[in-house]
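We now fix the convention by which a protein and its fold are recorded. The integers have meaning only within a learned vocabulary of local backbone shapes. The record below shows the convention in full.
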Amino acid sequence: MLSQILPVLLFGCILGLNITNKLIVCSFLFILSVLITNLMAKLYHTANAISIAMLCVLGSLALNWYNINILFIGSSAAITISLFCSTNLFNILDKKFALSFPISNLISSAIVTIIDSIIVSIALLNKFQINKVIEICLKDCVFKLSYVSVITICIYAVLYFIEHLRKTNVASKA
């Protein structure tokens, strides 16, 4: 069931990234896309997660073919590179360093936040002055890092709650 829902959610997030122009919404959809891709990498295989992410980006490009401009191409390149880097970095942190899912997701999301913001900022240079681009880039990073921090805290809270329920169920059966 989850294996069918995650790609659809990822496609919706990526499609939403290219539809909206609100920075706060784009930041949230980006972090949600990274979280979903990392979750797919954890549940399946890294190559499968990357393949699904690339198909979602291509599908979004196909549906938005009428709106192709330098900003759209920059945004699509940014999400493609970011999801690829995030998934590979998440895999290294998860497998090689044996970090927990929330910590691996936090670190990979924080790093690709900077990568994504820089790539999008380069695309924005064609449209805005450098001062405005730097301001947008900084706001984007703050929003994304805030979202990933809140999501990490929520994941830890859910995992703690699940562990607490398991302990109480084991204690009540004994």
Remarks:
- The chain is about 85% helix and 0% strand.
- Residues 130-173 form the longest helix (44 residues).
